[in-house]
Amino acid sequence: LQDQGKLEGAEAVLREAIVEAENYWPEGDATVGQKYGALGAFFMIVGVPSSAEPMLRQALDIYREAYPNGAFRVSNSQVRLAECLTALGRYEEAEPFLVQGFDWLLTDRGLEDSYTREVGEKLIELYAGLGRPNEEARYRRLLEGGGL
Predict the structure, then answer these.
(1) What sign does the CA torsion over 103, 114, 124, 72 have?
(2) What's the predicted TM-score (pTM) here?
């Protein structure tokens, strides 16, 4: 539906998926978090980060309960929320989510992983936007192989 430009229909299907998942799965099940994350991602794709934020926060809350710290779903969810907050111009609020997501990715997947590097680049951009050259340089060195 989204690919056909039927955005209201796509949103309705995603909302219905949340209702069905909440009715079927026990409270806090990661499957429900996936549905919230999908709706949040949809809102980001269509350029409505203010609608994405509560969905992405709900997904992150569920993932934090369902998975241990450092699990990919948790770190990825943090990165998605940070992207949303950045799109809303709330850079300071985005920072801890992006830093923690990156740290977990770095530990779990390493610097050789393309997604870890992508998130590292997002950190560099964030710090450049915040006018914090020391942090920007720190992550740039890390991505260039110089360590923190």
Answers:
(1) negative
(2) 0.86
